[in-house]
Design brief:
The relative contact order is 0.20. The N terminus is likely disordered. The radius of gyration is 18 Å and the shape is globular. It is an alpha/beta fold. It is built from 7 helices and 10 strands. Helix content is 31%, strand content 25%. Strand 1 and strand 2 form a beta hairpin. The strands form 2 sheets. A 6-stranded mixed β-sheet has the order 6-7-8-3-9-10, sandwiched between helices. A 4-stranded antiparallel β-sheet has the order 2-1-4-5, with helices on one face.
Amino acid sequence: MSSPATAAAPVVELHDLGRTFEGAQPVEALRRADLSVMAGDYVSIVGPSGSGKSTLLHLLGLLDRPTKGSYLLDGIDTADLSDAQRTALRGQRIGFVFQSFHLLSHRTVVENVMLAMLYGDTPKRQRHNLAISALERVGLGHRLDFVPTLLSGGERQRVAIARAIVAGPSLLLADEPTGNLDQTTSESIMEVFEELQSEGLTVMVITHDSVVAGRARRTVEMLDGVLSEVGQ
Protein backbone atom coordinates (compact mmCIF):
# COMPACT_ATOMS: atom_id res chain seq x y z
CA MET A 1 0.00 0.00 0.00
CA SER A 2 1.37 3.39 -0.94
CA SER A 3 1.79 6.12 1.64
CA PRO A 4 -0.91 8.77 2.02
CA ALA A 5 -0.61 12.04 0.17
CA THR A 6 -0.02 15.39 1.77
CA ALA A 7 -2.75 17.21 3.66
CA ALA A 8 -3.46 19.35 0.60
CA ALA A 9 -4.44 16.35 -1.52
CA PRO A 10 -8.12 15.42 -1.94
CA VAL A 11 -9.58 12.86 0.42
CA VAL A 12 -11.65 11.44 -2.46
CA GLU A 13 -10.44 11.54 -6.06
CA LEU A 14 -12.38 9.79 -8.82
CA HIS A 15 -11.09 9.70 -12.37
CA ASP A 16 -13.26 8.25 -15.15
CA LEU A 17 -14.74 5.84 -12.62
CA GLY A 18 -17.25 3.31 -13.94
CA ARG A 19 -19.07 0.19 -12.80
CA THR A 20 -20.78 -2.24 -15.17
CA PHE A 21 -22.67 -5.28 -13.95
CA GLU A 22 -22.34 -8.13 -16.40
CA GLY A 23 -25.21 -10.32 -17.52
CA ALA A 24 -27.36 -11.13 -20.53
CA GLN A 25 -27.92 -7.38 -20.73
CA PRO A 26 -25.00 -5.59 -19.02
CA VAL A 27 -26.00 -2.65 -16.80
CA GLU A 28 -23.73 0.38 -16.73
CA ALA A 29 -24.60 1.56 -13.22
CA LEU A 30 -21.89 4.24 -13.10
CA ARG A 31 -20.43 5.98 -16.11
CA ARG A 32 -17.13 7.86 -16.23
CA ALA A 33 -17.46 9.65 -12.88
CA ASP A 34 -15.01 12.41 -12.02
CA LEU A 35 -15.07 13.95 -8.56
CA SER A 36 -12.65 15.60 -6.15
CA VAL A 37 -13.51 16.09 -2.48
CA MET A 38 -11.11 17.93 -0.20
CA ALA A 39 -10.58 17.42 3.51
CA GLY A 40 -13.35 19.05 5.54
CA ASP A 41 -15.76 19.22 2.61
CA TYR A 42 -19.46 18.34 2.96
CA VAL A 43 -21.07 16.81 -0.14
CA SER A 44 -24.59 15.52 -0.67
CA ILE A 45 -25.35 12.96 -3.38
CA VAL A 46 -28.90 13.04 -4.72
CA GLY A 47 -30.86 11.28 -7.42
CA PRO A 48 -33.90 9.07 -7.99
CA SER A 49 -34.05 5.40 -7.08
CA GLY A 50 -31.97 3.35 -9.50
CA SER A 51 -29.81 6.29 -10.53
CA GLY A 52 -26.54 4.76 -9.31
CA LYS A 53 -26.24 6.30 -5.82
CA SER A 54 -25.87 2.95 -4.06
CA THR A 55 -23.30 1.81 -6.61
CA LEU A 56 -21.29 4.96 -5.98
CA LEU A 57 -21.56 4.48 -2.21
CA HIS A 58 -20.27 0.91 -2.47
CA LEU A 59 -17.31 2.06 -4.55
CA LEU A 60 -16.50 4.96 -2.23
CA GLY A 61 -16.73 2.65 0.77
CA LEU A 62 -14.43 0.05 -0.84
CA LEU A 63 -17.26 -2.46 -0.68
CA ASP A 64 -17.06 -3.00 -4.44
CA ARG A 65 -14.49 -2.52 -7.18
CA PRO A 66 -14.94 -0.36 -10.30
CA THR A 67 -14.73 -1.93 -13.73
CA LYS A 68 -12.86 1.10 -15.08
CA GLY A 69 -11.20 4.28 -13.91
CA SER A 70 -9.45 5.01 -10.63
CA TYR A 71 -10.36 5.88 -7.04
CA LEU A 72 -7.81 7.49 -4.75
CA LEU A 73 -8.61 7.66 -1.04
CA ASP A 74 -6.31 9.98 0.90
CA GLY A 75 -3.96 9.80 -2.05
CA ILE A 76 -3.86 6.00 -2.02
CA ASP A 77 -4.74 4.37 -5.34
CA THR A 78 -7.18 1.63 -4.36
CA ALA A 79 -7.19 -0.16 -7.73
CA ASP A 80 -4.50 -2.74 -7.09
CA LEU A 81 -5.02 -3.28 -3.38
CA SER A 82 -5.73 -6.80 -2.23
CA ASP A 83 -8.98 -7.56 -0.43
CA ALA A 84 -7.11 -7.56 2.89
CA GLN A 85 -5.54 -4.19 2.14
CA ARG A 86 -8.92 -2.74 1.13
CA THR A 87 -10.48 -4.03 4.34
CA ALA A 88 -7.68 -2.47 6.40
CA LEU A 89 -7.91 0.84 4.55
CA ARG A 90 -11.70 0.91 4.97
CA GLY A 91 -11.37 0.32 8.69
CA GLN A 92 -8.75 3.02 9.10
CA ARG A 93 -10.11 5.76 6.85
CA ILE A 94 -13.89 5.35 6.38
CA GLY A 95 -16.85 5.58 8.76
CA PHE A 96 -20.35 4.46 7.73
CA VAL A 97 -23.76 5.68 8.88
CA PHE A 98 -26.91 4.01 7.55
CA GLN A 99 -30.65 4.62 7.64
CA SER A 100 -31.07 1.58 9.89
CA PHE A 101 -28.87 2.04 12.92
CA HIS A 102 -27.49 -1.53 13.06
CA LEU A 103 -26.96 -1.44 16.82
CA LEU A 104 -26.83 -4.53 19.02
CA SER A 105 -29.82 -4.33 21.34
CA HIS A 106 -28.21 -6.41 24.11
CA ARG A 107 -25.08 -4.24 24.26
CA THR A 108 -24.81 -0.87 25.98
CA VAL A 109 -24.27 2.32 24.02
CA VAL A 110 -20.58 2.47 24.88
CA GLU A 111 -20.13 -1.22 24.03
CA ASN A 112 -21.75 -0.72 20.63
CA VAL A 113 -19.25 2.03 19.86
CA MET A 114 -16.32 -0.02 21.15
CA LEU A 115 -17.22 -2.84 18.76
CA ALA A 116 -16.10 -0.65 15.85
CA MET A 117 -12.53 -1.02 17.12
CA LEU A 118 -12.69 -4.77 17.73
CA TYR A 119 -10.70 -5.75 14.64
CA GLY A 120 -8.44 -2.71 14.52
CA ASP A 121 -5.08 -2.11 16.13
CA THR A 122 -6.42 0.05 18.96
CA PRO A 123 -5.22 -1.37 22.29
CA LYS A 124 -8.09 -2.83 24.29
CA ARG A 125 -7.42 -0.56 27.25
CA GLN A 126 -7.91 2.53 25.07
CA ARG A 127 -11.16 1.51 23.40
CA HIS A 128 -13.42 2.43 26.30
CA ASN A 129 -12.04 5.98 26.60
CA LEU A 130 -12.16 6.52 22.84
CA ALA A 131 -15.79 5.34 22.75
CA ILE A 132 -16.73 7.73 25.53
CA SER A 133 -15.00 10.59 23.72
CA ALA A 134 -16.87 9.81 20.48
CA LEU A 135 -20.20 9.69 22.29
CA GLU A 136 -19.49 12.99 23.97
CA ARG A 137 -18.78 14.51 20.55
CA VAL A 138 -22.30 13.62 19.42
CA GLY A 139 -23.95 14.72 22.68
CA LEU A 140 -24.54 11.29 24.24
CA GLY A 141 -22.05 11.29 27.08
CA HIS A 142 -24.99 10.88 29.47
CA ARG A 143 -26.28 7.66 27.86
CA LEU A 144 -23.21 5.44 28.07
CA ASP A 145 -24.78 2.54 29.96
CA PHE A 146 -28.16 2.60 28.23
CA VAL A 147 -29.13 -0.12 25.75
CA PRO A 148 -30.43 0.99 22.32
CA THR A 149 -34.01 -0.08 23.06
CA LEU A 150 -34.20 2.66 25.70
CA LEU A 151 -33.11 5.37 23.28
CA SER A 152 -35.07 7.51 20.84
CA GLY A 153 -34.48 7.15 17.11
CA GLY A 154 -32.35 10.27 17.05
CA GLU A 155 -30.25 9.05 19.96
CA ARG A 156 -29.72 5.70 18.27
CA GLN A 157 -28.51 7.45 15.14
CA ARG A 158 -26.10 9.49 17.27
CA VAL A 159 -24.72 6.24 18.66
CA ALA A 160 -24.27 5.01 15.08
CA ILE A 161 -22.43 8.23 14.21
CA ALA A 162 -20.19 7.86 17.27
CA ARG A 163 -19.41 4.32 16.19
CA ALA A 164 -18.55 5.60 12.69
CA ILE A 165 -16.12 8.26 13.92
CA VAL A 166 -14.52 6.52 16.91
CA ALA A 167 -11.56 5.21 14.91
CA GLY A 168 -10.76 8.68 13.54
CA PRO A 169 -11.68 8.22 9.86
CA SER A 170 -10.92 10.85 7.23
CA LEU A 171 -14.20 10.17 5.37
CA LEU A 172 -17.72 9.75 6.76
CA LEU A 173 -20.21 8.12 4.35
CA ALA A 174 -23.88 8.40 5.31
CA ASP A 175 -26.64 6.58 3.41
CA GLU A 176 -30.09 8.13 4.00
CA PRO A 177 -29.13 8.89 7.63
CA THR A 178 -32.43 10.65 8.38
CA GLY A 179 -34.72 8.24 6.53
CA ASN A 180 -36.21 6.83 9.74
CA LEU A 181 -36.41 10.13 11.61
CA ASP A 182 -38.94 12.94 11.89
CA GLN A 183 -38.15 16.45 10.71
CA THR A 184 -37.06 17.83 14.08
CA THR A 185 -34.82 14.86 14.80
CA SER A 186 -33.41 15.00 11.27
CA GLU A 187 -32.46 18.61 11.91
CA SER A 188 -30.51 17.62 15.01
CA ILE A 189 -28.65 14.90 13.11
CA MET A 190 -27.73 17.36 10.38
CA GLU A 191 -26.32 19.63 13.06
CA VAL A 192 -24.11 16.78 14.25
CA PHE A 193 -22.76 16.30 10.73
CA GLU A 194 -22.11 20.03 10.41
CA GLU A 195 -20.23 20.07 13.71
CA LEU A 196 -18.07 17.14 12.62
CA GLN A 197 -17.41 18.81 9.27
CA SER A 198 -16.42 22.03 11.03
CA GLU A 199 -13.85 19.99 12.97
CA GLY A 200 -12.28 18.87 9.68
CA LEU A 201 -14.06 15.58 8.92
CA THR A 202 -15.00 15.02 5.28
CA VAL A 203 -18.70 14.15 5.04
CA MET A 204 -20.57 12.65 2.09
CA VAL A 205 -24.32 12.06 2.47
CA ILE A 206 -26.56 10.13 0.09
CA THR A 207 -30.14 11.34 0.43
CA HIS A 208 -33.43 11.71 -1.38
CA ASP A 209 -34.41 14.56 0.98
CA SER A 210 -33.88 17.99 -0.61
CA VAL A 211 -33.76 19.65 2.82
CA VAL A 212 -30.99 17.33 3.98
CA ALA A 213 -29.13 17.77 0.69
CA GLY A 214 -29.41 21.54 0.99
CA ARG A 215 -27.43 21.54 4.22
CA ALA A 216 -24.29 20.37 2.42
CA ARG A 217 -21.74 22.72 0.89
CA ARG A 218 -21.88 20.90 -2.43
CA THR A 219 -24.48 18.74 -4.15
CA VAL A 220 -23.72 16.02 -6.67
CA GLU A 221 -26.58 14.56 -8.72
CA MET A 222 -26.76 11.00 -10.01
CA LEU A 223 -28.97 10.30 -13.01
CA ASP A 224 -28.84 7.10 -15.07
CA GLY A 225 -25.34 6.39 -13.83
CA VAL A 226 -24.03 9.85 -14.69
CA LEU A 227 -22.60 12.06 -11.96
CA SER A 228 -22.77 15.84 -12.24
CA GLU A 229 -22.23 18.63 -9.75
CA VAL A 230 -25.22 20.89 -9.17
CA GLY A 231 -24.46 24.57 -9.62
CA GLN A 232 -21.53 24.17 -11.97
